[in-house]
Write a structure and sequence with these properties.
Layout: E1 8-11, H1 17-27, H2 42-48, E2 54-59, E3 62-71, E4 81-88, H3 97-111, E5 116-122, H4 126-134, E6 138-149, E7 152-162
Parallel strand pairs: 4-5
Antiparallel strand pairs: 1-2, 2-3, 3-4, 5-7, 6-7
Length: 168
């Protein structure tokens, strides 16, 4: 689907793997993830992030952002929840790309009868926490001093978006 300012949002395809991996290298660091991604190969990336498990934001053939999603667990009793993560190229942050991806994710979740989107974010990643709150996510829990990164204990914040706005 093509939307404003020339952005196309679509499910990821096999051809996007290299660009998504490159984007991951730019976005995920010790302020945004508790450990390096350490993917040994494209094949390993594809095992954990197969085509269609992300929505990508593309402009002029380049992937500038994505939102990944997967079931939180394999339990049937938990099938109404998707766990998500989002990455936007630093040059596009603050320009609405993340919001476009988040809105598209909510539409996809609604079409699949998903009731809840959940995520985890490091407390030191204040920009991401603010972004999630701006997009309707609320803190459901906090694991105090869950990670020790660069000499500092960091909380892991559990956040969620209620698709039906009834229980959060």
């Amino acid at each position: 689907m093509t939307i404003n300012q020339g952005w196309t949002l679509r499910p990821s395809e096999l051809k996007d793997a290299s660009q998504i991996m490159a984007l991951d290298e730019l976005v995920w660091d010790e302020q945004t993830t508790p450990a390096p991604l350490n993917r040994s190969s494209r094949e390993e990336f594809l095992r954990h992030s197969p085509p269609g498990s992300q929505l990508v934001a593309v402009k002029e053939g380049t992937v500038y952002g994505y939102i990944g999603f997967k079931p939180s667990t394999s339990l049937p009793s938990n099938s109404h929840v998707l766990s998500i993560h989002i990455a936007v190229h630093p040059s596009c942050q603050g320009q609405g790309v993340g919001r476009l991806l988040m809105d598209a994710m909510k539409e996809l979740a609604a079409s699949r009868s998903i009731r809840k989107l959940s995520l985890r974010v490091l407390s030191c990643n204040e920009g991401a926490v603010a972004f999630y709150r701006k997009n309707g996510f609320v803190e459901e829990g906090r694991l105090k001093a869950e990670f020790f990164i660069s000499g500092t204990y960091i909380d892991d914040i559990l956040m969620a978006y209620d698709m039906e706005r009834k229980y959060i």
